[in-house]
């Protein structure tokens, strides 16, 4: 399907000139998070307070208010954010995790065999173990408690519609959900050199350049 030329950015759609929150300062709340200094990320502690913390040494990629859906290996309770990263790095087959601090009773660390499908989950933070790459084969099935159970087989056909601006659905393995307009998202293959794609997610700040008139694969 041919698409009209789209105005796309290789980085964020807006340029952040400087990050105002200081290291370990307040970076927002459940209504929205702001930026943090380099090598820091925005950690949700509760709905009213998010804080800039240093990236865990073994998990430099952190995604605030994002859940990596499915691919659960194990759920560990009572850890701190950096300990969740450490536990994942020490667990065979663990590539990524989702951490929820404001979980009823105690914190929850969901260890995952891959990134899978990302989705918005206010109050969560997801991380990727350094060198974790893309999804790995699912672990053997076992009855473990899970906030994000593995989804059923995706019924969206290849290159079919996968939602709109109100929400994206799944795509077949080897494809991701590409927003073309507010009314039409489509399952397409990821670029060969950029296999990890995150639909409806912005990486704020750290902009190098903005280039107009390209297609996603360009």
Automatic annotation (TrEMBL):
Domain Apple, chain residue ranges per copy: 59-126
Which organism was this protein described from? Aphanomyces stellatus
Looking up InterPro entries in the UniProt record yields:
Apple, CBD, Pan_app
GO CC list? extracellular region
> Which CDD domains does the record cross-reference, listed alphabetically?
APPLE_Factor_XI_like (cd01100)
Which keywords has UniProt assigned to this entry? Disulfide bond, Repeat, Signal
Q: A biological process (GO) annotation for this entry? A: carbohydrate metabolic process
Signal as a keyword of this entry, yes or no, is yes
| Lineage per the UniProt record | Eukaryota, Sar, Stramenopiles, Oomycota, Saprolegniomycetes
**UniProt signal peptide:** 1-18
**What superkingdom does the record give?**
Eukaryota
Q: Where is the composition biased (Pro residues)?
A: 135-153
Instruction: Give the start-end ranges of region Disordered.
Output: 129-153
> GO molecular function, one example?
cellulose binding
Name the chain's protein. Apple domain-containing protein
């Amino acid at each position: 399907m041919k698409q009209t030329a789209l105005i796309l950015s290789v980085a964020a759609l807006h340029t952040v000139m400087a990050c105002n929150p200081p290291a370990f300062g307040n970076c927002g709340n459940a209504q929205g998070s702001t930026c943090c200094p380099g090598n820091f990320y925005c950690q949700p502690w509760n709905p009213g307070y998010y804080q800039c913390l240093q990236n865990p040494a073994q998990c430099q990629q952190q995604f605030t208010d994002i859940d990596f859906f499915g691919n659960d290996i194990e759920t560990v309770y009572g850890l701190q954010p950096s300990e969740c990263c450490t536990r994942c790095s020490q667990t065979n087959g663990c590539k990524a995790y989702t951490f929820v601090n404001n979980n009823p009773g105690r914190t929850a660390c969901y260890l995952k065999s891959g990134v899978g499908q990302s989705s918005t989950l206010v109050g969560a933070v997801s991380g990727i173990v350094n060198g974790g790459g893309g999804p790995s084969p699912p672990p053997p099935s076992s009855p473990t408690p899970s906030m994000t159970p593995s989804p059923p087989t995706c019924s969206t056909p290849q290159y079919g519609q996968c939602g709109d601006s109100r929400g994206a659905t799944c795509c077949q393995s080897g494809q991701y959900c590409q927003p073309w307009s507010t009314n039409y998202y489509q399952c397409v293959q990821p670029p060969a050199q950029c296999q990890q794609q995150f639909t409806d997610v912005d990486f704020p700040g750290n902009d190098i350049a903005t280039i107009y008139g390209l297609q996603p694969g360009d």
